[in-house]
Amino acid sequence: MIKLEIPKSHPRYESLRQREKLVTLYNSGIVTISGLISHGRGEAFDYILGERTSEFALESEKAALDKLTKSSRPVVSVNGNAAALAGAEMVEFAKKYNIALEANLFHWSKERIEKIVDMFEKMGLKILGKNQDERIPGLDGPRARCEREGIFSADTVLIPLEDGDRAEALKRMGKFVITVDLNPLSRTSRFGDISIVDDVRRVFINMNNLEKKDYSGKSQKFDNSKNVQEILKLMGSRLESMREWPEID
Ligand code: PTJ
Fold it and tell me: Please, what CATH class does the domain formed by 55-236 belong to?
């Protein structure tokens, strides 16, 4: 296996470092090859957004944090990509807000679940996922598996980089669904009650740094459709304004 040494001086250092994390965890069996494809799609949307959190995404993050901290059984779902890209930030989040994480996979295997749970345990956090004793109704196959104590009985679920079919099934269960997906057009984003269009690592960094006075009450008047419309407009106007190559920053 070739390990890429990325010099800090490289202008694309952060992006390359995120890719390297995915490749490393692909080699250890946590990320799937399909996860690498998903990341490429996310990167393309992030490029259009300027690889930074838009003011609209930040509003959705404040609303999401308000909702999660007010819910009685909030759960954050963790898949291979989320673990690789934002594992450390998710640990900080879970500890800071006392919110449970559950390893939950689209490309299900017992071995991958165990690896993700163990990875978080090594980072100092016990997470759910090894005791999958329930199923998300309406989904075929092992991708429906989840824990009764976790996602199954959650009132609010945050699902980063989720498959649209599973997002829809969680919605049908009556849950309040918070999505994280850089693609505002995805089926997943469309099933969100709050659809965060931002990079998963930035989402957790932002939520970890928010002060209560900044997010408190933000879920009450949050208009998700309007927020996503603003993001689509932002993407459109960024593309529209680029009549020539923009400055390289
Ligand atoms: O680990 P598993 O088996 O649970 O599988 C995880 C993946 C992500 C492979 C699985 O859920 C999947 O196939 O997802 P999709 O259908 O490819 O959707 C993933 C979405 O995440 C896409 O719409 C991407 O735009 C988006 N995405 C990719 N990278 C990021 C992202 N969104 C936020 N932050 C990212 N870094």
Answer: alpha beta
